[in-house]
Amino acid sequence: METATSLLDFIKDEFVPEPKEIPERIQKEIKLDLEELFCPFCGHPLEYYYISKVRPLITLKYDISLRVVHKRCVNEGCVAAAVNRRFYNPSLDLCMLPKKMYAMDVILLIGYLIQQENKTEEEVVKYLLEEHGITISQPSVNNYKRIALALGEALIMGNAEKIKSGLDDLSFRVYSIDGLNSNKSRILFVIRDLISGIILGSALLDKHDSDTIHDFMEAVFQKFGTPDYMVGDGERGLIGAVRKYYSHIPYQYCQRHFLDNLGKDLMEALYKALKKNLIGKTP
Ligand SMILES: [Zn+2]
User: Fold this and answer.
1) Residue 48: phi, psi to the nearest 5?
2) 246-280 burial code (b ≥16 CB/10 A, e <16)
3) Which residues, by Cβ under 5 Å, contact ligand 1, an ion?
């Protein structure tokens, strides 16, 4: 048996983790096109308008140089033409915010790490670098944390009643549910009101089986009302949850198909609601 004067000799260095290998970033140049050929308001063919300047977009996995194709409706009688509404791929608004370089998956992950895992801003800087190869400064993390809070629960808590009454005014509710791939096996789920674009809930789920996804959906539905229609992607757990728990609610795989398949009555209701909003807001 050895005699020791300190236990530290036996544990020193053992708890210093090996430095991780930083994942390599994937560079992409993307021109984001719009699939819709016809104006969703009047059915007139959309015309090419312009392509935006290059802007950087950093997602959890990619460094993207992005240009966005804009189209417009030139039918004089159409509300979209009257307010010079530009049409671009709807995934743009889902994935990024105006004038912000980091994509929604990064922003919501920052919010999650700080709110749910109680990481400090410095720990988030380290986490994003080690897990995703993303370089971000602490002041930026602070800035995005505020945005994430505003997008997420904090804003919803304060405004839940207002948002809900806004939804109650619509003749029907359409929610979009999207799973954004996050690190490891986690998926970030975001539920939005498709008409206003407001985020009703987000969660980074460790498990994405149908029961776990259902729990998240149900929490949002309890707060804001059950949708009349749902639009989402083909994520297996999500499809499973919809089939098992919401088989009475029509579910569409993507927004474009949803708009294509909307009945005339519903389209008119949507048209009126949008007309009010668009005309009210345009200078
Ligand atoms: Zn039109």
Assistant:
1) -60, 135
2) beeeebbebbbebbeebeeeeeeebbebbeeebee
3) 39, 41-42, 44, 73, 75, 78, 80
CA R_g for the chain: 23
CA 85 to centroid of ligand 1, rounded, Å: 9
pLDDT digits (tens, 9 = 90+) for 8-60: 766 655 556 666 788 899 999 999 998 778 887 788 999 999 999 999 999 98
Other CB atoms within 10 A of residue 45 CB? 12
Q: How far is the CA of 266 from the centre of ligand 1 (A)?
A: 17
Fold of 160-283: Nucleotidyltransferase; domain 5 (3.30.420)
Whole-prediction pTM value? 0.57
Query: How far apart are the CA of 268 and the centre of ligand 1, in A?
Result: 13
Q: Where are the domains of the chain?
A: 26-95, 102-158, 160-283
